[in-house]
Amino acid sequence: MDREHRHELKTNELADWIAHVPDFLQQHGKVLAGGVFLVIAAVAVLFAWRLKGQTAFAEKAA
């Protein structure tokens, strides 16, 4: 087993990735927050649209 392979085995990739998360969030946090907001808004609009359709259908049936 050569020296480079031993070093590769000693490296904990998960710990390395977790250590870089704060830097990533500092650089891309606003974009991620905007994306999360858009997804939540889209789900809310679809839920409201579906609820409105069910209400209109119930009123026609009554």
Question: Could you explain how this protein is built, in words?
Answer:
With 62 residues, the protein is mostly helical. The chain has a domain at 29-62. The protein is built from 2 helices and no strands. It starts with a helix and ends with a helix. The mean pLDDT is 88.
Question: Would you summarize the structure shown here?
Answer:
By secondary structure, this protein is mostly helical. The chain has 2 helices and no strands.
- Give the termini distance in whole angstroms: 78 Å
Computed structural class = mainly alpha
Shape: elongated
**Overall mean pLDDT:** 88
Number of strand segments:
0
Report the biggest beta sheet as strand number plus sense, adding barrel if it closes. Answer: none
Task: Outline the secondary-structure elements.
Layout: H1 3-10, H2 13-61
Question: What labels would you give this structure?
Answer:
single chain; 62 residues; mainly alpha; 2 helices; elongated
